Amino acid sequence: MRNITVMLALAAATLINTTAAQAATTNLVKNGDFELTSNGTSKQINEGSYARADRTYLTDWTSKGYNFVLNGSTIDSTKGDTALSLWGPNSYGGRDKTSQNGLGASPTGGNVLAADWDYFPGPVTQLVSGLVAGQSYTLSFSYGAAQQIGYAGANLVNYWDVALGTQKQQTASLSNASHGFTGWQQANMTFTATSSSELLSFMAKGSPTGAPPFMLLDGVSLISAVPEPSTWGMLLGGLGLLGFMARRRKAAAV
Asked: Taking the model in full, what pTM does it have?
């Protein structure tokens, strides 16, 4: 009987840990790595419902500014096959020594979002559903600052203004040199939901103006900080079933 009790306790602990972990790691942001697009990449994100051959269509996100989806492998290409490129090791075939700034793939790889806060600033947004009012969520993402090729001049202040519903936070400000790249940074923010669906917004900001600056973004995730109430109901149900099995085994042994 003691062995059975121990086994049931271990099974209960495993059920709790597994279910809680699954609930806590469910990303509520869709297409947070910007891989789902149509009509190619390295183009400005389409802003309206009308079709344009020179625009990228970014699944699950809405754009209202000079925002691009760049392919990580051609982010600094100058072969004329992209609408926008940034200063980086591959600029002008690597012959420009001032652009050996370390620009490369983001920590998650693949596409990245690039937003110019100077020329025509506007947010990139997504309506996030599945939230629980009063519950805390952790928003995580990778970000950095770079500069459009063909231009020069330092940008001393570069940051993301982030909002979930009416709550707003900012990333740490990055200083970028002429022809530079700040390196990839990691941000983690905590928000408390006020309703079941709220608008997630990223707005690039900075100063001084005049030297085309681009804020970069990738790997966006919004994860519950604690298991949801429905998860606890599943756990209690599982524990009740284990207790019932234990009682039946005890009764059968008498």
From this structure: 0.81
